[in-house]
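Section 5: illustrative case.
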């Protein structure tokens, strides 16, 4: 029974830790992000199994973690607040030519991450970006500026109105 309790506690602590370190880890997986996740898992497994290194203990821990995952999915489907806690909400980080620096710092997202997402969409620069949104999964969505989104030039005084 102690393996079950330790696995359940480890699941919730790791869920909290991953939420605290931000979305970047979940989506971008730079080498230092992978190191953090591997260390999390390695640290958690020793606390879950303790001195019991039997196959039964390992299987019990795996099943408990699976049940915790199912429970979290069920809770997310029943509670919008819990869903937002676990997965977050989309956050606009760039709009109308302006960076939302406070939001970016909070998400630990850099301008280069947004620019990379724009380049992946085939855009040449920020002048072609209308919005950039950090999604729930950590990816950056780019909403491209269309011609009707661009400011219209002031009419010539010599041109008669149409």
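Designed sequence:
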């Amino acid at each position: 029974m102690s393996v079950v309790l330790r696995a359940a506690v480890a699941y919730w602590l790791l869920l909290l830790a991953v939420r605290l370190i931000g979305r970047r880890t979940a989506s971008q997986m730079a080498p230092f992000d992978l190191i953090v996740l591997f260390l999390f898992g390695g640290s958690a497994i020793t606390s879950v199994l303790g001195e019991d290194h039997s196959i039964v203990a390992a299987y019990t821990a795996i099943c408990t973690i699976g049940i915790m995952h199912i429970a979290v999915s069920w809770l997310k489907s029943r509670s919008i607040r819990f869903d937002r806690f676990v997965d977050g909400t989309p956050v606009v980080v760039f709009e109308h030519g302006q960076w939302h620096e406070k939001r970016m710092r909070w998400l630990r997202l850099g301008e280069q991450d947004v620019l990379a997402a724009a380049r992946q969409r085939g855009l040449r620069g920020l002048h072609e970006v209308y919005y950039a949104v950090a999604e729930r999964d950590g990816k950056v969505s780019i909403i491209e500026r269309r011609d009707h989104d661009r400011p219209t030039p002031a009419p010539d005084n010599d041109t008669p109105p149409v």
